[in-house]
Amino acid sequence: MFKRLIGILTFCCSVLFLSSGFCQEWQELNSQHFRVFFSKDKDFLKFAKEVLDKAEKYYSQIAQDLGYPRYSEFWTWEKRVKIYLYSDHNSYLKATGQPEWTKGVADYKNKQIISYVWNEGFLDSLLPHEMAHLIFRDFVGFKGEIPLWLDEGVAQWSESEKRKEYKRIIKRLFEQDLLISLEDMMKLDIRTVKTTDRIYIRSIRMRDGKQGTLLVSGNVLVDTYYLQSVSLVGFLIERFGSDNFAHFCRQLRDGKGLEEALKSVYPTYLRSIQELEDRWRDYLEKL
Ligand SMILES: [Zn+2]
């Protein structure tokens, strides 16, 4: 498979700390949990208002989906999240020094999201995605070993408008025996995969239970990894509920390994990565 299978993913870039100073004059709009800064150059007021409005809506939706019902006081007053909107992609790149393929960045430590004024994709996709990264990180902290697939899965799951499409594509990959085995996925640091023409060899589980091998380009591997991530999170939340999911994340936060956390929260169904894969595949079968 050399062609890009999936055109719907948002690849974001998350950093612990962004040191670039923003030497720009800003206009500012505030709400209960957010401060939106936008460029003074042109009149971006309408867009900034829309951002503020959507951000508040996503805030409660994401916290509820992830099972954090008492989250409402987290981002008030001086803890409000800052959203910086540059006037275009170039100014954003120049100010942040981020790779050219990114459209926005979440800065965990300073609780800020930096992007630029673009309608298509920002409000429905990038904004909930980056907010979910920040909310999730607030919840799980930095000490526990949080697998990357869980972090990215949570962020993509919050892009609720895309859930249907994710399910449609993962079902197709499942039916064609193109999914990477979970064991392989757990070992893979997707950040080291450069999306070039290089071919990667991964192990897969076939629908008949046998092991197989998959030859894929870097692009397809990254797409598949991201899709499996969101599908696993969707499976855990839809099949076992948000409260159990929050409990599971709390176990990881408190230092438990993945299998240990699964075992303690889902003791009847998911006692190992193997069982997680088996039950997830049952779920895909019925999608
Ligand atoms: Zn992300």
Tag the structure with descriptive keywords:
287 residues; binds zinc ion; 10 helices; two-stranded antiparallel ribbon; Glutaredoxin; 8 strands; six-stranded mixed β-sheet; alpha/beta; single chain
Describe this structure in words.
- The chain has helices at 45-65, 89-96, 122-140, 148-157, 163-175, 182-187, 218-240, 242-253, 258-265, 273-286, and strands at 13-15, 26-30, 34-39, 81-86, 105-107, 112-116, 199-205, 211-217.
- The radius of gyration is 19 Å and the shape is globular.
- By secondary structure, the protein is an alpha/beta fold.
- The model is unreliable at 1-8 (pLDDT under 50).
- It has two domains: 13-140, Glutaredoxin, CATH 3.40.30; 148-286, no CATH class.
- It binds zinc ion.
- Zinc ion binds next to helix 3 and helix 4.
